[in-house]
Amino acid sequence: MRYGFQGARAVLLLASLTMLGAAARAQDVPPTENGRYTMTPAEGGFMRLDTRTGAVSLCTATKASVECRLAPDERTALQQEIDRLARENAELKTRVAAAAAPRPSIPLPNKDEMDRALNFAESFMRRMMRIMREETPPDRI
C-alpha cells in the first residue's frame, strides 16, 4: 500500500504529536505497570508507542509479518535547541545585569570650582561684548 504526500504528512504529524505526549507520559509510567507498548491506528497501519522510552514506530502489516520502523525523533533536536536558548538567555541576563550595575558617578564640582568656572565665563563674555562694541560694522566704513 502506498502513501500519498498527504498521507505521509498526516502520519508524520501524528507521530510528532504522539512523541510529544509520549515523552511526558513515558516519565510517569510506573515500572510495575503492564503493557509497555500502546498501539494507535494510523493510515496504512498503526503507531506503536513505547511508554517507557517515548519512542514511536510506524508499523505496517505485510503478507508475512508486521514491520515496524522507528519514526524520526525530533526530541533530540528540540532539546538541543532548548539547551542553546537557555545558555543564550543566561548569557543575556548576565550582560543586562552588568549593564544595569551602577556606574561610578562623576563628582559634582565644589563651590570654589564653580566660582572659578563662572568667573572664566563672565570674563569671556565681557571681552566678546567689548570686541563687538569696538569693531566698526562693515556697512559704516
Itemize the secondary structure elements and their pairings.
Elements lengths: L4 H24 L8 E6 L2 E6 L5 E6 L4 E5 L4 H26 L10 H24 L7
Antiparallel strand pairs: 1-2, 2-3, 3-4
Q: In words, what does this structure look like?
A:
The protein has 141 residues and is an alpha+beta fold. The chain contains 3 helices and 4 strands, in the order αββββαα. Strands 1-2-3-4 form a 4-stranded antiparallel β-sheet. Strand 2 and strand 3 (56-61) form a beta hairpin. The mean pLDDT is 77.
Q: Keywords for this structure?
A:
141 residues, alpha+beta, 4-stranded antiparallel β-sheet, 52% helix, 16% strand
Discrete helix count: 3
Assign an overall shape: rod-shaped
**Percentage of residues in helical conformation:** 40-55%
Alpha carbon gyration radius: 39 Å
Spatial sequence of strands, sheet with the most strands: 1-2-3-4
The average pLDDT is 77
Structural class by sheet pairing and helices: alpha+beta
User: From N to C, what is the helix and strand string?
Assistant: HEEEEHH
* Percent of residues in beta strands: 15-25%
Low-confidence stretches: none
Biggest β-sheet description: 4 strands, antiparallel
What is the terminal separation in angstroms? 108 Å
Query: How many strands?
Result: 4
